[in-house]
Design brief:
single chain; alpha/beta; globular; TIM Barrel; nicotinate phosphoribosyltransferase
Amino acid sequence: MRNLTLLTDLYELTMGQGYFREKRHEQTAVFDIFFRPNKLITYSVAAGMEQAAEYLENLQFTEDDISYLRGLGLFEEDFLAYLKNLRFTGDVYAVREGEIVFPYEPILTVKAPMVQAQLVETALLTFVNHQTLIASKSSKIVAAAGGGVMEFGLRRAQGADAGVYGARAAVIGGCVSTSNVYAGKLFGIPVSGTMAHSWVMNFPSELEAFRAYARSFPDACLLLVDTYNTLKSGVPHAIEVFKELRAAGHEPKGIRLDSGDLAYLSKEARKMLDAAGFEDAIICASGDLDEYSIRSLKEQGAKIDSWGVGTKLITSADLPALGGVYKLAAVYENGVEIPKIKLSDTTEKITNPSFKEVYRIYDRATDKAIADYIVRAGETVDESKPLELYHPVERWKHITVTNFRARKLLSPLIEGGKRVAPKYSLAEISAYRAGEYARFWEEYTRQDMPHIYKVDLSEKLYELKRTMVQESGKGV
């Protein structure tokens, strides 16, 4: 893995020197990563924890890094000497990759000496924000399509890393393959793709182009049929080549549509393929697709079996940033926790203090998720007693839950600077996401006007927050 220790904002280092000078650099601190809601974020799919763990385990300033920092003329030699020997020695608690997560709840918590915890903020946010964003977009596209989505976005990604890790995140969200060969090799993702329009245009005729491709890939022949005229030449020529393949003992894979009225063209193409005896040939569609256009195509009765989604997936076009934040929740003095809170005139921006844990509450009868419950670390949930769940701001809104089970979402990822969480394959992570997604009622995950999933604070945490706000003079 590349050394990404300098993948940080300058103020993390200037604060680090300040903490070092004030002898507060070894004070234990707790920081949470969470995101706030907006009209496009109702739920998200957590991702990026694997890269975060690799980064933390390999945190180390090289001689070249120290030389560069010295050259900035900002840092004192004793602080640079301290950085030279710095390693991450803290603890990290995180949800599992593929977990369905909601606004305000911690999805990754760092408990470490202050300088270390501050230094890693930027990189951790980079990994978690980007990959969670793309995994979430992928999940919504896959839900609209009902499966069969291929990630085709590398050429439109904002850089190589965004394309590579975006492909991984897209598979966590439910995509079945990627066009990105490097990501395929790196993460074991199935790769997919056939030809471009340039292939067809390079031959004297469309038919000759199709025949040439079939000669190279007789058992994986999927032809792009919209270069000239989809229904008058593309599909008829594809059928002609398919018949030749079958006569030679091979079965074609199908056709791809990349432009035009995909609903109409797919329905007409399906009729033509079926009439020619190629009922098993698939129809793949691509071309600026997202969850909205896919849902519309399905509502129009489009006969599309698989979907190649590129730009609007890999860039999360309608929401280009998750907006996750990294906020101080507590510090420790002589082993005693001192909760910290960020205040704001905007209620939604007031943070939740203290070292915390998150429980997901499931109805035992249906095994469906009811709410998430944020508690102070060490609090437990007694499944044998009714649980009162209150709105975290509008406290008059509440429900009483019985016959439930509670599952803790955060678990150790790093302890004492070393990874302790198991490593899962990408297929296992994607399957986990699918299984947990199925435990939410459609009302919470639907595209239009979803119900707001409940994320509640325990009474102890709520009272701590209320008291801290009141003591600040801000009121509640």
